[in-house]
Amino acid sequence: MDMKSPVSRDSEYRFYRGPVATCVANGIQAANFLGDRFLRKTRHSSSAIDRLYADSMNSAFSATESFLVTGAPHASAYYPRDFAWFYPDVLDPDTIMDSEDAIRRVRLLERSVRLMLEAVRAGVVTTTIIPAGRNRYIGVNYFARPSDTLLGILAGLEQIIGADQRASASYLGLSQGAHAGRLLLVEYREDLKKAIVELARSLEPFEDDGAGYLLCDAAAPRSAATDTRAERRRFVTNACIYATFLRAIELEVIGIDELEQLLGRELSRYKAELLSLFGKRGHISHSLDCDNEAPSSCVALDFVNVPRGFWDLKRRSERALFAATTDLIIAEPRFRVPNTFHFLVSVDNPRRKMIHKIASPSYQGRSSWPTFNVEFADRMLDFDEFSATDTYGSCAREILSAIRAATELHGGYQELLTEQGLKYCTWAYQGAVAHSWFPRFLTVWKRAFGTPLLDWK
């Protein structure tokens, strides 16, 4: 087993990697899933949205947890990418119930961010961190190296640093968290910069119709939150790399001049090239390998990327690509859970590993991820804001209303739903109530409807 040396003599953490460590991690994960399969007890909860939210927050931000997790059966493993994709509003004051809730969230987020930063310092930038004993962790890449792990770490750090800057930030715990976040940035800035430089140097040249581009997955797959597809040349993985660079610059982890020198081009040109390459058919293709397929089979809901990620929609050309892709998804019945505004990840199942066919069929394709639907709605609102129109506002509100209905129906905020809108239950995946994703939904709901869904004041 390859063991990374402790970061310092007084280090609290040890990280492990290598083939033997991966086998151990797989065994731990198998035990977690089996335990969930046979030992999980069904909770009968109120269907009232306020009670469901309170129960979810008490579970997601329990004082006994050492890291922020989803509440799904694989919750005993930690996914740094989630802080960009799923946890961007953990410290939104409008989603916090009371001062005790605020303190629990800040403490849990601070512990989570510190652990992730220690992993970066130890050179363990992986998709998954699995506990293997007291302060021992195994870093594992499932199926492919990550494109969005650093993005999640930066997003988590950014959130805690800005905890006291949001409107109505009246909780003392948020100010204390912000101070802790600024200290973390100072302590780990050089480690983060080293990781960003390595990421920039890992980009590969790619040619298409005589033009040159930079891709993170030209030769081999990189994973993103729609994980384990094992595909090359995907839009979302490359969009995550751009978003990572952007956040690193905003946090002053690296200067834009130094980064552009590493890329050999301006950052704005790097983004424009990605839009040109993946948008050459007039919409954003999920992958460059699906050019011969019908347009509706060539897009995926994860194109919406992450909050404050790839899309800023300030340019008319960018809005046109977003609108064309959005219209394809809205118009295609196969993207829709019947009789709802819940959208599926894709119209077809992507290529999958054998384990998915056995344990979690349709996990990445013919299923609905409520959190991606929330981001779809949020990007629609972005489009309307920057285009000064009311093009997608009603659709965004329908999406959010459908998620509320499903949450009340199924007794909690689901990680994903089946094609029919039912709870996603397979032999190895008995339940997936994504407690810690719930605040993001509340934040976007308030933006869409103008009033909070829940108000504790």
Compact description:
The protein has 457 residues and is α/β, with parallel strands linked by helices. It has helices at 19-39, 49-60, 82-85, 99-121, 149-161, 172-201, 235-250, 256-263, 267-278, 316-331, 354-359, 370-387, 393-410, 438-449, and strands at residues 2-3, 14-17, 128-131, 136-140, 145-146, 204-208, 211-215, 222-223.
How many domains would you count in the coordinates? 1
CATH topology term: Glycosyltransferase
Q: Which CATH top level class fits?
A: Mainly Alpha
| Largest sheet descriptor | 4 strands, mixed
How far apart are the first and last residues' alpha carbons, in Å?
Answer: 53 Å
Determine the strand fraction and express it as a percent band. 5-15%
- Mean pLDDT, all residues: 89
Adjacency order of strands in the biggest sheet: 1-2-4-3
Helical amount: 40-55%
Query: What structural class should be given to the helix and strand makeup?
Result: alpha/beta
